[in-house]
Amino acid sequence: MARQATAEKRPRRERGSINPDDIIKGAFELAEEVGIDNLSMPLLGKHLGVGVTSIYWYFRKKDDLLNAMTDRALRQYVFATPYVEAKDWRETLRNHARSMRKTFLGNPILCDLILIRSALSPRTARLGVQEVEKAIASLTEAGLTADDAFDTYSAVSVHVRGSVVLQRLREKNRATAEGPSDIDEAMAIDSDSTPLLALVTEKGHHLGAADDNNFEFGLECILDHAGRLIDEAKSTPAKKSARKR
């Protein structure tokens, strides 16, 4: 069942004893208990033991507070994500994707702030763009064109984010206990009308589920395609040289 939006009231702080860092830290603590959707300024005031006006002094509305939380969460996420390296692009890009997914799946608050809400300050947005630039530069050094490097990294990013968001929505649907949590649970599969589906689902395959098997299959397809593009680029100069002879 979903947790109710309640917070234990702490001893009242002295006026002026709270600062933005305290508020952001408290907001993360409270979000761990009640979720981002149920986070509110009055509830946060009770959690911190201050009047709600003390919070509004620094954050005029909830969106401002969520933006500050997102900035902090993204800095933590970028720091924890391994870089893509040209000399071993396939393995490092694979690890990069797996690490992104693991980080978000392990922290629902991070997922809600960065992937679902997606509101970033200009400074944090620039930081994110710079990290993407580094990854694309490594892929071009590995042999992809700038266009193909961009499309490859973008495809990996969409694949990771889509997988995580689907899993997060599944968890939220299950928490409400209102019907099936995703398309996989809603489908009626029997061996008479859908024998192939019945065969593979009995082996543990899931249609449309953001599980490890589907994630890894999709990731390898993207990496395989990028590998073919690099191989084609390497063979093109040799073909041109042979024709000149």
Overall description:
There is one protein chain. 70% of the residues lie in helices and 0% in strands. By secondary structure, it is mainly alpha-helical. It folds into 2 domains: 1-60, Arc Repressor Mutant, subunit A, CATH 1.10.10; 82-181 and 189-224, Tetracycline Repressor, domain 2 (Orthogonal Bundle), CATH 1.10.357. It starts with 19 loop residues before the first helix and ends with a helix.
Question: How do the strands and helices of this protein lay out in sequence?
Answer:
Elements (H helix, E strand, L loop, with lengths): L19 H15 L6 H8 L3 H5 L5 H19 L8 H17 L2 H10 L4 H21 L3 H31 L6 H4 L8 H8 L9 H33 L1
CATH homologous superfamily descriptor of the largest domain: Tetracycline Repressor, domain 2
Q: What kind of sheet is the major sheet?
A: none
Mean pLDDT: 82
- Large-scale geometry: flat
Q: Cα distance, first to last residue?
A: 73 Å
Judged by helices, strands and strand pairing, the structural class is mainly alpha
Q: What is the string of helix and strand elements?
A: HHHHHHHHHHH
CATH class of the largest domain: Mainly Alpha
The portion of residues forming beta strands comes to under 5%
Compute the number of structural domains: 2
CATH architecture of the largest domain: Orthogonal Bundle
Q: Give the radius of gyration.
A: 23 Å
Low-confidence stretches: 239-245
Helix content: 55-70%
- Please give the number of β-strands: 0
